[in-house]
Write a structure and sequence with these properties.
- The protein is 74% helix and 1% strand.
- With 430 residues, the chain is an all-alpha fold.
- Helix 6 packs antiparallel against helix 7 and helix 12 runs antiparallel to helix 18.
- The N and C termini lie far apart (49 Å).
- The N terminus is likely disordered.
Length: 430
C-alpha cells in the first residue's frame, strides 16, 4: 500500500469513493489532462505505468511454457491445448484493432480500470477452468483485455512533457518488454512447483493490485475525439493516408518484425536438432538475453529526445541487421561458440528492435495528439502482421533450407526496414 500511496501522492486526481459515498464536496480539481505534458512525471507514476504495461501484456504469454501440463491435467489433446496461445494472440490482435481506438473517444483512465477488472476475472476463470472449452474461451478474453498495455503507452505519452516524451515512453516500453520476455520464465517455474492453475491465480492477483494502484494514481484523461465508434475505426484508414510519417514507421517496424519473429519462432526447433539436442528450457533461457536488450529502451528514448527519433530508428535497424548478419558465420563455429554467438546476437537484435520501436512510437505520438490511441493501433497492427508473416515464413524456410536461410531472411528484413528509414519521407496530406 505504500507504493499506492506514493503514486497517489504525486499524481492522483479524480473522484474518490469512501465507504460507498463520494469524497468531500471540495471544488472540483482539474484533470491531469488539462495540464499534462507541462510537468515532469514522478517516479511513482512512471513505475505504475511501466508495471501496468508489463503485467498486463505478460498475461498473453504465461500459458506457453505450461501447455503440456495443462493438457494432461484437463485431458485435452496437444492440438486442442495448442489453441490456447493462438486464441490469446488472436484476441490481442483484434483488441488492438477494435478497442485501442476508444482511447481517443473516452477517458483512458476508465478504459484502463475496466480492462484491468475484466482481465483479472478472465485470468481467475482460467485458473479454475474445468475443461479445454472454457479455457479456450477464457484465453480469447485474456487477449482482448490484455490490450490495456496499449492504452497505457499513449497515456504515458500524453502525460509526459514533450521534451522527455521519448524517455518516458522508453521507460514504459521497458516494463512492457520485460513483461513479455520474463513471463515465460516465471510461469515455467511457478507451474513446475505449484501447478499451472496457481500461475493464473497469481497473475489475476497481480492485475488486481495494478488496477488498485491505477485507480488511486492515474489522473483522468480528457477525450480528444467525439467521433462515433464506426467513424473512429474508419478514421484509421484516413490517418494512414494522411500521415507519411505513420506509414514509414508502421512499414519499417513491420518489416523488422518479420526477422524478429522468424528467429524466435524457429529457435527452439533449431536447438532441438543436431548438434545441440537441447530442450525447450534452453530456448527459454535465450529470452533472458533478450531481456538485457530491452533494458536499452529508456536510453533510446533519451537519445531520441536529444538528437531526434529519426537517428534512433536508423541506429536500431542497423544494429538489428548487423546482429542477424553475424549469425551467418555460425556454421563454421564449434557448437559452444555458436551458442555464445546466438546469445550475443539475440542481445544485439533485440536491443535494435526495441529502440526502433520506442523511436517509432515517439514519432507517431507526435503526429496528432488528438489521435494517439488510433495512431498506436495502426503501428501495432502492422507490427503484428509482420510478426505473423515472420512466424509463418520462418518455419517454412527452416524446413526447406535450414537455419542459415532463416538468418538470411532475418537479415534481409532488417535491411529492408533500414532502407525505409533512409529513404526521403513523404509529406503529410493536408
Amino acid at each position: 500500500m505504500s507504493f499506492i500511496r506514493a503514486v497517489h501522492g504525486t499524481a492522483g486526481t479524480g473522484t474518490m469513493a469512501t465507504g460507498g459515498s463520494v469524497a468531500p464536496a471540495s471544488p472540483p480539481q482539474p484533470t491531469m489532462a488539462s495540464h499534462c505534458g507541462s510537468e515532469p512525471l514522478s517516479g511513482g507514476l512512471r513505475l505504475l505505468l511501466a508495471a501496468g504495461a508489463g503485467l498486463s501484456v505478460a498475461s498473453i504469454y504465461y500459458s506457453q511454457p505450461m501447455l503440456a501440463v495443462m493438457g494432461s491435467t484437463i485431458g485435452a489433446s496437444d492440438t486442442a491445448v495448442g489453441l490456447v496461445p493462438t486464441l490469446t494472440q488472436l484476441g490481442y490482435a483484434l483488441g488492438i484493432l477494435l478497442l485501442i481506438p476508444l482511447g481517443d473517444r473516452f477517458d483512458r483512465r476508465t478504459i484502463i480500470l475496466t480492462k484491468a477488472s475484466l482481465l483479472s476475472v478472465a485470468l481467475l476463470l482460467g485458473g479454475i477452468a474445468p475443461d479445454v472449452g472454457v479455457l479456450l474461451a477464457v484465453s480469447f478474453a485474456v487477449g482482448l483485455t490484455a490490450t490495456m498495455a496499449q492504452d497505457i503507452v499513449p497515456a504515458a505519452a500524453t502525460l509526459a512533457p514533450e521534451r522527455e516524451r521519448g524517455k518516458v515512453v522508453g521507460t514504459v516500453m521497458t516494463g512492457l518488454l520485460l513483461g513479455i520476455l520474463l513471463s515465460r520464465v516465471i510461469s515455467g517455474v511457478v507451474a513446475e512447483h505449484f501447478g499451472w492453475r496457481a500461475m493464473y491465480v497469481i497473475a489475476s492477483a497481480s492485475v488486481i493490485l495494478i488496477g488498485a494502484a491505477a485507480w488511486r494514481g492515474l489522473p483522468n484523461f480528457r477525450p480528444t475525439s467525439t467521433l462515433s465508434y464506426g467513424a473512429l475505426l474508419g478514421s484509421l484508414a484516413s490517418l494512414w493516408r494522411k500521415h507519411g510519417a505513420l506509414r514509414r514507421a508502421a512499414l519499417a517496424q513491420g518489416l523488422l518484425s518479420i526477422g524478429f519473429s522468424a528467429f524466435w519462432s524457429t529457435l527452439a526447433v533449431m536447438l532441438h536438432g543436431a548438434p545441440f539436442h537441447l530442450g525447450s528450457a534452453a530456448a527459454g533461457a535465450f529470452g533472458l538475453a533478450g531481456a538485457a536488450g530491452a533494458l536499452g529502451a529508456p536510453v533510446a528514448g533519451r537519445v531520441a529526445d536529444c538528437f531526434g527519433p529519426e537517428l534512433v530508428t536508423r541506429l536500431g535497424a542497423g544494429l538489428t541487421a548487423l546482429s542477424f548478419a553475424t549469425m551467418l558465420t555460425s556454421p563454421w563455429l564449434e557448437p559452444n561458440a555458436r551458442l555464445w554467438l546466438l546469445a550475443g546476437s539475440a542481445i544485439g537484435f533485440d536491443l535494435g528492435a526495441q529502440i526502433m520501436l520506442v523511436a517509432h512510437q515517439t514519432i507517431v505520438f507526435g503526429i496528432d495528439p488528438a489521435a494517439r490511441s488510433r495512431l498506436n493501433a495502426v503501428l501495432f497492427v502492422c507490427m503484428f502482421i509482420g510478426m505473423s508473416l515472420g512466424a509463418a515464413s520462418g518455419s517454412l524456410v527452416l524446413a526447406h533450407w535450414g537455419w542459415v536461410a532463416v538468418t538470411l531472411l532475418a537479415t534481409a528484413s532488417a535491411l529492408a526496414a533500414l532502407l525505409v528509414r533512409l529513404l526521403p519521407g513523404t509529406r503529410t496530406v493536408r
